């Protein structure tokens, strides 16, 4: 119990240290739970609707490519999908993206949260986070590089960072990690796997 309390204290101090370095609170558009966990750890309001859900890789790129248009439409329920959680979709003239709402009890709960949070998006202060495990098709990395955002990162492993300068290889993937990057490497760890990337300069707009 004492060890658990000590680890909890160290994690809290680490979060406070990171929060103290933060000079900007942007809207984070994230493909999966990486963005939501980051904002939770920093104790920040969710200024993005992409929380507690994930988008397929190609859908995420389409969503970002036409972000304002997709944020202007209401989420529709996707029926008959066979998943143990609700699913939604956004349809515009650019196409349709699918939302896996795996951390919501119902579609109505997810849709209400989506509408509430999308009103907080600051289009002038955006950070784009595209997490994809190693093996992402190279053409998707190329499409990500072409997205018209100054501050963006593709978190993966084994990527050619000279060819794709907005890619970052998480150290955990080089070590053969197969757990979600939102997990802690061990019960005594202070940093999550995803914290192999230095988030604060990114959020501050320095990288």
How would you explain this protein's 3D organization?
By secondary structure, this protein is an alpha/beta fold. The chain has eight helices and seven strands. The protein is globular. The N and C termini lie far apart (40 Å).
Outline the fold blueprint.
Layout: H1 2-21, E1 27-30, H2 33-42, H3 57-65, H4 67-71, E2 76-77, E3 87-92, E4 95-100, H5 107-118, E5 126-131, H6 138-145, E6 152-156, E7 167-169, H7 171-174, H8 199-203
Parallel strand pairs: 1-5, 5-6, 6-7
Antiparallel strand pairs: 2-3, 3-4
Question: What are the defining features of this structure?
Answer:
207 residues, alpha/beta, 4-stranded parallel sheet, 3-stranded antiparallel sheet, 8 helices, 7 strands, 35% helix, globular
What does the oligomeric state look like here?
single chain
- Strand percent estimate: 15-25%
Helical percentage: 25-40%
Strand order of the largest sheet: 1-5-6-7
Mean of residue pLDDT values: 93
Give the structural class: alpha/beta
Count the DSSP helices.
Answer: 8
- Which ranges are low-confidence, i.e. pLDDT below 50, for 5 or more consecutive residues? none
What does the overall shape look like? globular
């Amino acid at each position: 119990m004492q060890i658990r309390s000590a680890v909890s204290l160290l994690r809290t101090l680490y979060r406070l240290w990171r929060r103290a370095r933060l000079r900007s609170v942007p809207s984070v558009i994230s493909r999966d739970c990486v963005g939501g966990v980051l904002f939770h750890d920093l104790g920040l309001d969710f200024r993005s609707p992409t929380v507690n859900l994930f988008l397929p890789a190609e859908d995420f790129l389409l969503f970002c490519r036409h972000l304002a248009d997709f944020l202007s439409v209401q989420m529709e329920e996707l029926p008959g999908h066979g998943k143990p959680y609700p699913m939604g979709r956004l349809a515009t003239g650019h196409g349709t993206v699918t939302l896996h709402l795996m951390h919501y009890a119902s579609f109505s709960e997810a849709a209400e949260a989506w509408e509430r949070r999308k009103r907080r998006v600051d289009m002038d202060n955006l950070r784009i986070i595209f997490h994809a495990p190693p093996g992402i098709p190279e053409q998707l990395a190329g499409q990500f590089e072409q997205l018209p955002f100054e501050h963006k990162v593709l978190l993966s492993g084994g990527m050619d960072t000279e060819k794709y300068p907005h890619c970052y290889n998480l150290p955990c993937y080089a070590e053969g990690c197969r757990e979600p990057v939102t997990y802690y490497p061990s019960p005594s760890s202070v940093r999550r796997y995803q914290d192999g990337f230095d988030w604060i300069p990114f959020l501050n707009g320095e990288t």
